[in-house]
Design brief:
434 residues, alpha/beta, four-stranded mixed sheet, 31% helix, globular
Length: 434
């Protein structure tokens, strides 16, 4: 496989407008939920990213009919699924693979699914998922790197989550929507994509109330039917462009968003002195001066999202004063800071906190993306830096951002994607943009 990388000439403020695609995290749950119906389901506003492609291949591999109607629309029919054993090398690479357990268990009362991978940002314990399945009446074991779940029948139950896990909430919601009787999930996650998956299941005939609140109530139904559904915009993609605009001292309209989903990011940007204007389905972010310091702590929604922590840290590293960013969700999510230091950032890590002393300028360097969101943060750093930055391992970034370099070029960024070992192309690029 030829490794790709981004080469960036920094120092250009971003100007213009950018359209945000469908939410990757919602799409993964919705694609899997679609196989629970025995009729065709059409999903619109699907992001064209690697994680989505892998998941579509996986459900096709067990017998679902998958038709790509266009780049952002797919029709899925789960009527002919002939296998509940999902195990291939691809599926191990993405997080959303474990949703297949909830969907297959709910529909067929059995599932064998390879344990998920994804980004190396710390352990993602799935004990909450397994506890939930067991309380619905399933027997669950883990062996040979697979989750093996089986039930004679699933019966509604009262389930309390020890922590508001997004994955466990979606998984239990899917398994219980075809269980007998009533299920109550206490302390569920409240992220926008939880609500989106619940709305999608309801569009297929499920009976789910309370998604996005402290208690979700589900009344089991016998079967789910076909539906047409459009995925919500991606709050993390939107947030990434908001911070890129602020970090480069630009002025960007971020379109096709739900401003309410962005409130935690908006509040921090305003706190440090950036300007944010909200419209019905658009936000404008602009700043013409060096920004100030803030303390940020990642929290479950509606708190500050862990998926925006690396981007925010990058912005604060260019701001005035001392900021502290505390990561409470994933213990290994500060690994990228050594890469930011190569560009001149002054950041000390103590446990799960980053103590940031702002510097006036980054300088270009060769850095490597350790995961999806940190990769995006390093691109933002490159856009704000003096000189040339090379970001390696961009396959992580392409798992969750559609047309990243094209959208940035549309805002005036000087960025190209090229083969990592094509030195001539790199030289040509450097000479061309000087």
């Amino acid at each position: 496989m030829i490794m790709k990388q981004y080469i960036i000439k920094g120092g250009n403020p971003l100007y213009g407008e950018v359209n945000i695609g469908g939410a990757k995290n919602a799409a993964l749950g919705i694609i899997v939920a679609a196989i629970m119906a025995n009729e065709p389901v059409t999903i619109e506003n699907l992001p064209d990213v690697d994680d989505v492609k892998v998941l579509l291949e996986a459900i096709e591999g067990i017998g679902a009919i998958v038709e790509r109607l266009d780049r952002h629309t797919v029709r899925i029919n789960g009527a002919l699924i002939n296998d509940v054993n999902v195990d291939d090398d691809f599926i191990r690479k993405i997080r959303g693979s474990y949703y297949l357990v909830g969907a297959l268990l709910g529909k067929y009362k059995k599932a064998i699914v390879a344990l998920p991978g994804g980004c190396q940002i710390g352990s993602r314990p799935i004990d909450q998922h397994l506890k939930g399945f067991e309380q619905l009446g399933a027997r669950v074991t883990i062996h040979n790197g697979k989750i093996d779940a089986f039930a004679e029948r699933l019966t509604g139950s009262h389930i309390y989550l020890d922590c508001p896990s997004v994955g466990a909430t979606i998984n239990i919601m899917m398994a219980s929507c075809m269980a007998e009787g009533k299920t109550v999930i206490e302390n569920p996650a409240k992220e926008p994509h939880i609500v989106d998956v619940a709305n999608f299941l309801n569009s297929m005939g499920a009976n789910i109330k309370g998604a996005g609140t402290d208690t979700i109530r589900i009344r089991g139904v016998e079967s789910l039917h076909g539906s047409e559904y459009s995925i919500i915009p991606d709050q993390i993609e939107a947030g990434t462009y908001m911070i890129a605009a602020a970090a480069t001292g630009g002025d960007v309209y971020i379109k096709n968003v739900i401003p309410k989903h962005l409130e935690a990011i908006t509040a921090k940007l305003i706190e440090i002195g950036s300007k944010v204007e909200e419209y019905d389905d658009c936000v404008r972010v602009y700043s013409d001066k060096r920004l100030g310091y803030a303390n940020v702590k990642t929290m479950p929604y509606p708190g500050f999202p862990t998926d925006m922590q690396p981007q925010m840290t990058t912005l604060l590293a260019l701001s005035e004063g001392v900021s502290i960013v505390t990561e409470t969700i994933f213990e290994s999510r500060l690994k990228y800071i050594s890469e930011l230091r190569r560009m001149g950032a002054n950041i000390n890590v103590e446990g799960n906190a980053a103590i940031i002393t702002g510097v006036e300028q980054f300088t270009g360097a060769t850095v490597s993306a350790p995961d999806l969101r940190a990769g995006a943060a390093l691109v933002i750093a490159g856009l704000a830096a003096q000189g040339f930055t090379v970001v390696e391992q961009i396959h992580y970034i392409e798992r969750g951002y559609e047309n990243f370099e094209e959208k940035l070029r549309g805002l005036g960024a000087v960025i190209e994607k090229m083969d990592a070992d094509d030195e001539r192309a790199q030289q040509k690029f450097r000479l061309k943009v000087g």
